[in-house]
TrEMBL record:
Zinc found in the keyword field: no
Domain Aminoacyl-tRNA synthetase class Ia: 157-344
Keyword GTP-binding tagged: no
Location of the protein in the cell: Mitochondrion
Domain of life: Eukaryota
Enzyme Commission (EC) number: 6.1.1.4
InterPro entries, per database record: aa-tRNA-synth_Ia (IPR002300), Leu-tRNA-ligase (IPR002302), Rossmann-like_a/b/a_fold (IPR014729), tRNAsynth_Ia_anticodon-bd (IPR009080), Val/Leu/Ile-tRNA-synth_edit (IPR009008)
Pfam families listed in its UniProt record: tRNA-synt_1
SUPFAM superfamilies: Anticodon-binding domain of a subclass of class I aminoacyl-tRNA synthetases, Nucleotidylyl transferase, ValRS/IleRS/LeuRS editing domain
Protein's name according to its UniProt entry: leucine--tRNA ligase
Amino acid sequence: MWMGDCNGINLLFKLSIPTAEFDFLETFTTTPESLLDITHLYIRSNHKLARSDLIQETENGIKRLSINAIHPLTDRLLPIFINDEADYGPKIRANMSMLNVQIGTPKSNSYDESFANKHKVSTVIDSSTHWHKMDTETLLSELRSRELGGYRTSGKLSDWCISRQRYWGTPIPIIHCDQCGSVPVPENELPVRLPSIENIRSSSKTGISPLANAHAWKKTQCPKCGNENAKRETDTMDTFVDSSWYFLRYLDNENTEKPFEPNTVNKLMPVDLYIGGLEHALTHLFVARFIQHFMHSKGLCTSLEPFKRFIPIGMVQGKTYKTSNGQYVTKDKVLTIDKNTMIHSLTKERVEVDWEKMSKSKYNGTDPQEIIDAYGVDFTRLLMLNFVHPRSLRNFTLEDGIAEGLQNWFKIFINLYVELIDPRTKTVMSNEEFQQIELALREQRLNTIYTVTFYIDSFFSVASAIIELQKLTRYLRKVPINIKRESNEYLRSLCDLLVMIGPVIPALSSELWTILQKQIKTNIDGYDLNKNLFAQNYPLLPNDYPAKINALYDTTVFASMPIARSLLPTLTTTDILQQLNNNDNQLQMKTFIEKNGLKFDRLRKLDDYCATLIYERDPNVTIVEQSEPLVEKKKSKTSKKKQVS
């Protein structure tokens, strides 16, 4: 995961004399097994506790605090030294007090041992206590029960600072009183409303919120003691505090008594699909999961995770032309010398070609309206969704021939329905031939439904689904005219095709649906031609169509076998693995797994029609790339002909 492995634990040390700012010190260690060996702590010189009224200087010249930390289990008093030379481990972040603290364990760390000996820190550990009879996991459990840490976490995680010095945001509901300190705003006075002020711009130089100038709003009464000179907190919350649970509020957005009614939202949660950019994966997804876990711990949400599935979408990129000094050049000022060489038309210097995020300053943007005016809205949508996975970067250009290929397919697609208006003359065909072709047509139709559904459910790969629908289109084009005029199976294929492609090209699909409504005089199984296209049900596979067990790595299905759909829901993961390992292609499957260094990761069931065994790279297996032997190619007329063909 991007946030790192859970490679250590958090630890909380109470202070022997709490200060106004700190009741305890928090730190992180990757060696929980040395928990009972801690003899002292280090803090950095920029720590908030490293202040003059708390600092003492030892006879050896090292600075330490006049207060001690208390060991979270043994209650031993631990001296706290100010030392910037200690190893503060993987969690170093500026201005984060919990990350400016480190433990000293002389028994297992040579630096700590040297420091302890030099500054006369007692390293004697009483190993006769009951703590030393416990294993590490039991000790961590005890820490958790005392609420003093013990949770396995990542060394990359840090605190979330939610305060912002700006006008737009939710005011932090805290009142500062000289007598009572920080007091929460009473629940019956929530939410705190933003005041109307003229200047809402914050100053980056002073770091003071514009709300600090709203004097009438800022001055208030302390809800605890009645002090009339109390002041409201003028910082507002990070907008992620609100957006981290917006999906819960959406489900109960007219509730005036509470954020949401648990019984209402739990019927619909979790969210089926979350689509966003990489910035969502790195920040919003994390804080949304954090808040959901908190809601779950308080019994407000029954689902631990907020989202079933997340798809980070790729950027649309345009071609850029750049000189050696980094200056971007417009396309009309670039001359092509050969396939690999381009120069500036005026300066004659070499120009580098690359793909980058579309931007006006890089002269690589494409106005969508120009494409819409030239090709239409539906075609533009198809052009954007075709030949690219949603997670991948989209290098967009009209010079790659994709647009022309799609135009040809559009003509074939439209003509399938126009033919119903003006059908061609029938040819002679036997009853047996008719039935054989119709049977093959049914198989093609059902295979398309299965494959399209699989690609959407498994990868949300619209591009792969479009390719399958294009295959069906070309197949239907070659169907004999007798089948087109008289086969219910053919007409059902036309209906299926429109329903599946409809979300991609809705306008054209709706127009073609009206042709079906006017030209088809018989009932089509599964469809109501009196209703519009988007009132139709998605085509389903019949009960006699087999389900499939697939073995998947990345986006490659490297093994597959059919199985009865009635049997699939009853099978466990072990059963499914055994079924696939016993099929005819087990050798091929085993070879693929060994060659790519894979291990089974998880099972994904898609209703009753598919079970996918998902494999991932095994980090413990070293893959040796074998070089292919060089084979001298014999030149002959035959080989040349084969290359040409």
